[in-house]
Every structure is written in C-alpha cells, then in structure tokens.
Specification:
Length: about 400
Amino acid sequence: MDTPSTDSTTYPESGIPAYVNDTLSAVTPSLAGALGVPGHEDLLGAGRARAAAFLLVDGLGAQLLARYADHAPTLAALARGGSVLRAGFPATTAASLASLGTGLSSGEHGVIGYSFALDGPEGTPQGPVMSALGWCAHAGPEHADLREDFPPESVQPHSTVFERAAADGVEVSRLVPGFHHGSGLTRAVLRGPGRFVPAEAPEELVPGMLEALRGSGRALVYGYHGDLDRAGHDHGPGSDRWIEELVRVEALVSDLASDLPTDTVLAVVADHGMIDTGDHRIDLDHTPGLLSGVDRLGGEARVRHVHTEPGAAADVLAAWREALGERAHVVERDRAIAEGWYGTVSGRNRGRLGDVVAAARDTWTLVRSEAEPAQTAMIGHHGSWTEAEQLVPLLLLRSE
C-alpha cells in the first residue's frame, strides 16, 4: 500500500479553473454572443456570425488527440490553430453537458456528477442517489425512473442557452440520439423551443447539422457524437477500437468543415478526456473500513461523494485519508467549495456534494463491484483532476 497521507493538495499544474473563459461553461454563451443574443459575451473569440453550431465529441481529450494525431490529421491541424479548455469538475458527461447547456459551472447548475444525492420529496431531508444520465435511482435492481418525483426542470431550474437564444428569435436545433429525446437529462440541460432531430450516426448527423445551418435567419445548432467515449470505456483509450472511432470522428468533422454555409462558425469540443486505469482499483464494496459511518455514496469511479451518518463526518474523513493516502485527494465539503472545485456552489446545491469528497489521483479508481458492476468493468475512466481527463480541445471553424 502507498504511504498514507493526511492531506493531498497537489492539483494539476494548470490549477483549479476560474470558470470564466477557461472551461466548457464559456462555449455556448460565446456562440450566443456571436449570434448577438443579448446578455451573452463572446469570450472565446468565435466572431459575429449568422449561424453557429457546436459538435460535442464525447471523450475526445486534448492529450489523446495530440497522441494519436497521425490518425486524425484534420483534427490535429485544427487543434494546432485552436485552443484548450478545461472540462470543469468533475470531468464527466452529465456535468459537462449541463455546463454546455446552461453556461454555468456544476456548482451553479447542480448536476455535480454522474450520480448525486437529491433532496427528499416534499421537504424530507434525504432523497435517493440519482444517476443523471438515466435520471433514475442509482442503486438497486430496478433503477426506478425519477422524472415524476424529481422533475428535471426543478432539479436544474436555470434557463438554458437554447431557451435564451430562442427567446431572441434564433432557430434552435439539437441533433442527438433518439433516446436523448425527452430524457431527464435533456429536459434538465438541453430544454427549450426548437427542433430535436434524431441522429444516431455520422451519416445522419452531418447532413442534419448542415441543413439546420442553411436557413436564411440566425441559427444555433447542437450535435452529439458518443461512439468514441463508448470505445474508450469498453476497450481503453488508444486501443484499436478507439482509434477506429477516432478515424470516424475525423471524417465527420472533415465533412462538416467542407460544406459549412456562409457566415457560419462551428465549434468542435469534448466533454472530458479519458485515462486507462488498468488494475489500479480500490473496491469500496469490499473495503469495510471505508464504509463505516457512511450513509450514501454518489459520484463515479474517479470522484466519490461520501455522505456520512450524523456526527460521523470527521471520522469518515480521517478514515478515507488514511486508507487512500496519495491515491486520492480527500477533502471535506467546505474545503472543496472554498477552493472552487465546482465553481460557485449555490445553497440549494450544497447538500448534493458529499460531506467528504474523494477525487482519485493518477490512474486509481474507487469502484463498487456490487452496486456498479458495469462501471467497475470499464477500462477507460474520467472525472478527476488529471490533465488527461480535464483538458479538452476547442476547435473553431469559420465559413465567411
């Protein structure tokens, strides 16, 4: 076992983000600013345009793109002329999608991880731990749908950039897989007037985005591609299967870039990077010392929210620090908030963070083989503070 430490404070060299113009929360407000939507500033230099689009390539980390540039020359060339953002914390799809959809940090919009604890219904103190991607109960065999008891519009009440753009007369289109339509997460972070167009593959995504951009009026178009992320989780980032998907992403972006309508700006971004965690696993379900005094666990394999039993927070903090040592940053909730991990944390979202927050370091994972068998079996993971997880490319293309 590694030498225990009572306090781990070494974060990436680039530090905790400022959540101004250095994270994903700046992307859609900048595109709305480029379209002239009131109250939005073009922080990222997109430039004024009639139409704006952003393509989210799930899992395309900046370091992975640089490492495998030979397989994606168009993307690599754009990256050399582009910039790098931080995903924000945690570096996970639900939180990043919410930041892109609202222009807010996770502490403000409240989607603070893959799974997180909700307030109980009708003011009761404790609700379930919810998996945000499915908007369902995280634990248990039935994974009950929570959209009725915990309406997404209440869990995340802030207006979306799509709503604000549509209110200013912008035609809004979202091209996403069919199962996204009407899902809890979509209602929470992508809601608003406009079109939802099913697009399961590049063959549907490219023509659909281009058609939505070709109108005569102002347009804001969102497209999502998730196959690269799935390949990384299942086979590992950099695996043959992952590289095959990277080549498909290269073709997708090349096709979009070659046919952009006049006076259009396209932003290609990712929601997080990814690391291969190998055998560096700590199984929380079979480490009794880490469960003593714990009421509920949220988060995911790279970041855990530890909700403690009454009066047990200090003991749980000490036990997790002692057991994990240099394998994780383990801090109390107040410190994570004070240090700005989640940006500004609103009062209504404070309780969604664990009393103790554990962010895995290096390539360690904090898995749960009994409660989360599918996640435990994954090869690729993301969520924590390493630059491989945090740094994402921002590729801007313009058609004059």
